[in-house]
Amino acid sequence: MTDSQRKTPSYTVALTIAAIAFASLFCSVLSYQRPPPRPNVFVPRRLDLESDAPEQVHISLVGVDKMRITWITKDSAPALVEYGTSPGVYANAVNGTTSSYKYTLYKSGDIHEVTIGPLNPDTTYYYRCSSNSAKTFSFKTPPAKLPIKFAVVGDLGQTEWTKTTLDHVAKSAYDVLILPGDLAYADFVQPLWDSFGRLVEPLASQRPWMVTQGNHEVEHIPVVHPEPFTAYNARWHMPFEQSSSTSNLYYSFDTAGVHVIMLGSYTDFDTDSAQYKWLEADLKKIDRSKTPWIVVLIHAPWYNSNTAHQGEKQSVGMKASMESLLYQARVDVVFAGHVHAYERFTRVYDGKANNCAPVYINIGDGGNREGLAKKYIDPKPTISVLREASFGHGQFEVSDATHALWTWHRNNDDVAVVGDSFSFTSLSSDPACRI
After folding, report:
1. Is 168 known to be catalytic?
2. Which residue out of 112, 309, 340, 409 is catalytically annotated?
3. Candidates 3.10.129.10, 3.80.30.20, 3.30.499.10, 3.60.21.10; correct CATH number of 143-433?
4. pLDDT, tens digit, for every residue of 39-64?
């Protein structure tokens, strides 16, 4: 495939048509009508880039003081990152690994990964990849202690709405972005993964992006490509090894005073599964004196009063298996995606309001190509506090061991309007909820 083919509008249209066709064949049939979304975006490879130039650069946390730098080159290039704390001065150099993958007739470029550190907290580093001076980057490490600010975006996709969401996120001065699944909406069309990598690079190369998978990452085709999550696992390597997980589909990490758990809705989750046993062990290791806050991300929501995605096993079955674990550990908040709308629930356990249970927030409204889910169950359940079918993103600002502020910013006429806010008190600071 040539660069000229990639940049032509007809090729972009063909990709979109193919994606929709494959999605209709292999994705779940939905029972509601979505309104028309904004146009899709396809970001071609820049024609002025050399074949060994880095692109699709993104970074992710590895432990409390290291960062993984991931990038792709069209042709072979060294898996080398040079970095330092002054622009253009690279006092450190680290080598990493290179891989690639095949998906039917598609072959990826070279995917490079380098883990650098130890790094100082709350510090800006400047870096370049593959010794290439044509593109240089910088990132800022999260703080070592509270306060810390998370950007929360679900079901991002790559549409004009996505670009608006990313623009708003860029202005939020966040430390870490967390994403509860459905990244590129490639749906079997692998060049869309490349487009997504280019689309998010300006943000994802500057702040760590921590993600988990959704249904659009599965990309399993019986007989033709039976292995699920091929592109996701190859492109978005998360620090699962550091949390004693055996799968890139679920893991945890600490940053500042927050323990974040990323669960996999589309891998085994019953009580005898590896994921369940890992979660049980991970929760037992948490020291609330060091990480007083616990945040969990899933893709398929356990609580949902939208008519979309009702009764799916990834929601019902996973909730039945794991909800009691989160409740007993006094998890503070659970973020989910999948439903293309916003909804915040009160603290709830087993379907009832409970002051020692997590707050559940559905935020699958990042900008996907399928549109919004506008139909809700009537009457509204008493445990549902606010629900609205608008695109947007969330900000979770943890100020200290006791207090945090959640705000949801809707994309209203391309302006990030605050549509909801909620002040948290950590369950670890509540004497009535201490275990």
Report:
1. no
2. 309
3. 3.60.21.10
4. 999 999 999 999 999 999 999 999 99
